[in-house]
Amino acid sequence: AQKITQTQPGMFVQEKEAVTLDCTYDTSDPSYGLFWYKQPSSGEMIFLIYQGSYDQQNATEGRYSLNFQKARKSANLVISASQLGDSAMYFCAMRELNFGNEKLTFGTGTRLTIIP
Amino acid sequence: SQTIHQWPATLVQPVGSPLSLECTVEGTSNPNLYWYRQAAGRGLQLLFYSVGIGQISSEVPQNLSASRPQDRQFILSSKKLLLSDSGFYLCAWSSGEATLAKNIQYFGAGTRLSVL
Question: Reduced to 3 DSSP states, what percent helix, strand and coil does chain B have, rounded to the nearest 5?
C-alpha cells in the first residue's frame, strides 16, 4: 500500500479563494511527522508546515493550516486567500520515527494553479 | 542562518560519462544529508542519506554512489551514466536530532540532469 496518497493530480482555483489539498497516509508507527512542501517551477522544495502525530492542535503557519484527522489518517493542507504565487506543485510527506529512520516518504503531488 | 548550495543547476551528459554532483551546507555542524531524485511529474525518491562523515546509507540499488568527505559536503557520483539516470536531483539537510519526528529537511535548488 502507498504510504502517502495524494488523489488530486491537479487543481484550478480562483484567486482569493481558499483551497484544500488532500493527503492520506498509512502507518502503524505511533510516532510520525507529516510535512507539506511547495515546489514552484524553479524546482526548489520549500517547507511549508509540519504536524506531529501527538500534536493536539492543528498546525498553522500564516495562510497555511493543516487539517489533521488522525483517526482517518488524513493531513489536508488548507491555503486561505490564495494568491497567484501559490501556483506550484505541493507534496505531502511523512517521517516514521521508529520504522523509517531518516526517511521522508513523499506523495506524488498535486499541481495547483491559481486563476486570476 | 543555514544555507545549502547545490551545483551545477543544469547538466547535459552523454551516456557512459562520469557524474559528480556536489552539495554543501553552511551555518550548521554535523547535519544529516540526503540525495533525492525526482522523475518528471513524480514525487521524490530518496537515494542516499548520511548521518556523519563516511557514513552512507543507500535506499535503492542503482548506478549511483554517494560520498561524504567532509562534515558539510555530500557528493553524488556515477562512473558511467545511463539514460535512466536523467532526472532532477535534490540535496537536502536536516539537523542531527534523529530522535525527533519534527526533523525538517531543507532542500537545495536542485540539478537537472539530462543524459543523452
Answer: 5, 55, 40
How far is B11 from B9, CA to CA, in rounded Å? 7
Query: What proportion of chain A, given as a percentage, has pLDDT over 70?
Result: 95
| CB pair distance less than 8 Å for B49 and A32 | no
* Residue A83, CA atoms < 13 Å, CB-side half-sphere: 4
Q: Which of A103, A18, A65, A70 is nearest to B98 (CA)?
A: A103
CA-based end-to-end distance of chain B: 38
- The alpha carbon of A116 is separated from its chain's Cα centroid by a whole number of angstroms, namely 23
CB-nearest partner of B43 from A35, A52, A109? A109
Helix/strand/coil for A88: strand
Q: How far apart are CA A69 and CA A81, in angstroms?
A: 22
Instruction: Give dist(CA B63, CA B65) in Å, integer.
Output: 7
Q: How many CB atoms within 10 Å of residue A1?
A: 4
> Which residue type, as a one-letter code, is found at position A83?
Q
pLDDT tens for A11-25 read: 999 999 999 999 999
Is residue B74 helix, strand or coil?
strand
First-to-last C-alpha distance (Å) of chain A: 38
C-alpha cell at B99: 530522535
B96 in contact with A at a CB cutoff of 8 Å?
Answer: no
Which residue is it, cell 500534536?
A55
* Residues of chain B under the 70 pLDDT cut: 61, 97-101
